[in-house]
Amino acid sequence: MSLKKHSICIRVPKVFDWVTRQIDLPTISFREPELSNLFSCTQTPTPAVDLCTFLANYPNFSSHCRVLEDSLFTQEVFQSGGRSEVEVSLGDGKDITLEKVKVLAKGLLEVDILDQNGNVICTSDPIEFATIQTFYLCAPEGTVVEAFISHGECDSEIVCTGTFDQLDISLTFCLDVHVVADVKLEVEAAYCKPRKELPVADVICKTDKFPPQCPLVFPGKH
């Protein structure tokens, strides 16, 4: 590896702004007849007219909601005229100019219904969720907005009372939003070179027959 340093120019992504927001979506609800049409169930022990009639055969059923991670999608929503500028007051009384950014986050989820032994007896069709969030960021012209859903919790509840049948789904997730752009920086560095490969061999018999000694301690100097 070379130790001679000199100035070089590199291109790297710079983070202009970065925020994380917890998003609590409005409850997604289904009632009849959409509720029964939403699920595919095993028709045992008897065929059912609707979902809750079928679930009466499983008094200890439970539901489990899961997000289909492969379906998650985020992107900036481009506005006519571009990102508008907004004056924002900071906590110390200073004013700063930020850009208004809109981000779309969407995906699919499914709901499983399980019997008391944890076996899946019904599965819903994919259910779409979507939201557009507005952020005020340092996002000048030339920057790119990148968003990621970093964590989420999904919960479902099926209510069957005979007179009121409904599925409620609640979803909370964290949306990370980065504003980035490639910049060119001059840094002091040295060029790297590949190292030489080390000889490697399968060693079975050790050449050291004895444990390491401590000559400074024992027998010591006479």
Features:
222 residues, 6-stranded antiparallel beta sheet, 4-stranded antiparallel beta sheet, 2 helices, 5% helix, 56% strand
Mean pLDDT: 86
Strand content: over 45%
Total strand count, please?
10
Q: Uncertain segments of ≥5 residues (pLDDT<50)?
A: none
User: What is the overall silhouette?
Assistant: flat
- The succession of helices and strands, N to C, reads EEHEHEEEEEEE
Radius of gyration: 31 Å
Distance between the termini: 45 Å
Secondary structure tally, helices:
2
Q: Helix fraction?
A: under 10%
* Biggest pleated-sheet summary: 6 strands, antiparallel
Helical/strand content category = mainly beta
How would you characterize this protein structure?
The protein is mostly beta strands. The protein is 5% helix and 56% strand. It contains two helices and ten strands.
Structure in a nutshell:
The chain has 222 residues and is mainly beta. The chain has helices at residues 34-38, 51-55; strands at 6-24, 28-31, 39-41, 62-76, 85-89, 95-114, 120-124, 127-137, 144-160, 165-189.
Which helices and strands appear, and what pairs or packs with what?
Layout: E1 6-24, E2 28-31, H1 34-38, E3 39-41, H2 51-55, E4 62-76, E5 85-89, E6 95-114, E7 120-124, E8 127-137, E9 144-160, E10 165-189
Antiparallel strand pairs: 1-10, 2-10, 3-7, 4-6, 5-6, 6-7, 6-8, 9-10
